């Protein structure tokens, strides 16, 4: 009996082993608990910004967008002003060139009038020659500005370029709807009609129908 009790009594080495195992068990339990807390802390997100911070951020973004909008509107307004100025300058430059081209014609007309007044001549032919030369010069100026006469006389009537103000019966070989007279010259500016030509147009021929009275049978 004493022997069995001695056998059941743990030795010093067994006590050390048992204590080490108990320590490891407690350490593993602590680490399990602590480890779980560590994972939860790592997974936690950063605290959300306060309402004041969010409002401040939104206000700053709104100010940025407002500044961009004001800059874009200012750029658009400047672009409109530059475009309007460019168009105005272009129109005035075109007008200036036209007036410069017409000035020599005015000079020739003034010379013709001065010549008639100085020489007190009654020669209509001299005056007519000067007017013809001036008219030719003026037509040259207009053609350089892309202003050309509309061909009308002898042409088929075209309502795009002609305005019929008179009509007359077609005669001889003249076909109907042909321009047989030009009352006022029409002009084109490029492909645009400045004014149509006022013309006289030939009417279709009317065949005279002879109505014969039926003869009574005798």
What would the keywords be for this entry?
single chain; 218 residues; alpha+beta; 14% strand; elongated; disordered N terminus
Mean pLDDT: 77
**Number of discrete helical segments:** 4
User: Could you state the order of secondary-structure elements as H and E?
Assistant: HHHHEEEEEE
| Sheet with the most strands, sense and barrel status | 3 strands, antiparallel
* N/C terminus separation: 185 Å
Strand order of the largest sheet: 1-4-5
Strand content: 5-15%
Q: Which assembly state applies to the chains in this document?
A: single chain
Gyration radius, to the nearest Å? 55 Å
Please tally the β strands and state the result: 6
Overall body shape: elongated
Explain what this protein looks like in three dimensions.
The chain is an alpha+beta fold and 218 residues long. Helices cover 59% and strands 14% of the residues. The chain has four helices and six strands; from the N terminus they run ααααββββββ. The chain has helices at 2-8, 12-43, 51-119, 124-144, and strands at 147-149, 162-169, 179-184, 187-189, 192-195, 197-203. It has a three-stranded antiparallel sheet. β4 and β5 form a beta hairpin. α3 (51-119) packs antiparallel against α4 (124-144). It is elongated, with a radius of gyration of 55 Å.
